[in-house]
């Protein structure tokens, strides 16, 4: 009880400080720059909420005081059930009121004509919310959560209830609110009135749904064309990812380190660079095309520009994601189960087919789902290689920024994409429902993995080795491109591209970063290194809650998380601009909007990887910890996280590299002050400076490899195998019967 009272007291103190001591509205010069301290607290711009209310005439903030005061009064109620009810109600009401007043009142007054007609015109408006308002909103969320804890919800576990409440709030703000803002704009006229004509017209457009087509020549409707491509890409990337994972963990392949490097390379490369490398190889004037033409007289064709080329580029790009998801799952299959199968006289093939592979089903399903969604949301590869074969993501892009300028069409296409991804999500849930895949329990022995059946070993090597060679060739072309004068035309070797991008000089005893790429490079590193740990933490916490906790709306919550991953980055970028360019939250042009976009766009990968890995951890581990009086937070920190190291590594790696290589959303959100690497590289490509663009991309690849290795070292490896340690012996090998020694 004392602990609960202290928790409530700290929360109320935090809420009071938010209203009394922090600037209520957004500071144009930035909150963390602290320039506002010179005029704080009496100037109107940096004034705290209490002075905004009484000194600057913003009387609508009185409702915030009332609801917070009800929470303070509830704190002193003796009955915990009644105290919890009042505390939760005041938190929920305060949060709703705070959000409504922020949306309803803009810079110049009411944003809704209905509000003005009901309450009269306002003499003044309000800027976007600042540190004080945001911190008080967090206080209201936690007031609601701790009120439920007082009433015994989720067995009174404050960590679990608080985490669920905060995640729901953040998902609403950074996923539903932006997408909702975009969809509302799609059925509005220029004056804000309701006009759904354009939305209905686009929904019935035959160019979206036409089935009377030949897939290969691109005359299919854009919806079915994208769906077919996604199925092909997801199937191929999952198969290749499994083959890579098996070779890396179950064989004596001599080049495993090189294999792991090659599986990571495609996801740390800007997507349009892979497309350009494929054009250099297989385009009409490509190296392979010219060689075949000169040797065999084969006439150059345009087969690369269409679904075939997009498919090759997407499989090359997304196989590493499947590998990162699957390697932890393959390693997590308990060797003791395989040993038990062989003890029952099953051969290696039967053991693999009937025991090992079924236990990998969560990973296979998640890898397929991620590959499917990645393909549907991909923007860079279709833009470079699609030609006239547009897919949903590129069609949305041109509907928003092209000559069409049709937000209704963009909204319809986004809804079609959501329909496909939702269908894939539900199919995965049906396939895995009612099955248990736990392989890591609290029991001590795990044994050693059996070797792959000979046929499987030959098959995976036959898949992996040619793909490795192909990947090496593609990246060889990328590497060469940074050292030639004009890529594909003048192959004279030069270092001028690297010098122009990353030159350094010494002026007045200090280093001067004179290269044209340094500004965007440092900005990219800073934002990526901030967003990656946040993405991993939020994603794995969400996975723990989904797998281990039961609460109303859990399935809806999981789908809401996938929405940000399923929607093309183009739509995410446009929706963020529409939602966060005006009050109540104004973040455009800041680093915060880029970090928020990366965290909630990439978080689903951490969620899916965490769910796949956590499905293999028996719940008895949690129960044993809780039985020993550890709370949920300590259980997660001491028991769950050490066993999720592969998933943690995958989440960190993926979120970091996606923050660097993303283009479709970033191109809408960057500013002159915060320009990201991919946006800068696109500008170089548009200006025809291909050599500098390739040099910049190559430097990014090198930096990302270094940081990924650092993440791997920092997180470490999960060890599940049996180690027979005997006192006085330096070997881990089993000791013959009768020769055991005891400590």
Question: How would you describe this structure to a colleague?
Answer:
This is Iron ABC transporter permease. It comes from Rhizobium wuzhouense. InterPro entries: MetI-like, MetI-like_sf. It is found in: Cell membrane. Its main location: membrane. By secondary structure, this protein is mostly helical. It is built from 32 helices and 4 strands. The strands form 2 sheets. It has a two-stranded antiparallel ribbon. Strands 3-4 form a two-stranded antiparallel sheet. β3 and β4 form a beta hairpin. The chain is globular, with a radius of gyration of 28 Å. The two termini are 45 Å apart.
Highlighted features:
mainly alpha; two-stranded antiparallel sheet; globular; disordered C terminus; Iron ABC transporter permease; transmembrane helix; MetI-like
- Overall shape: globular
Major β-sheet annotation: 2 strands, antiparallel
- Helix fraction? 55-70%
Task: Quickly give the structural class.
Answer: mainly alpha
N-C termini distance: 45 Å
- Residue windows where pLDDT falls under 50 for at least 5 positions: 214-218, 720-743
Strand arrangement in the largest pleated sheet? 1-2
> How would you state the average pLDDT, rounded?
81
Count all strands and give the number: 4
Rg result: 28 Å
- How many DSSP H or I helices? 32
β-sheet strand percentage: under 5%
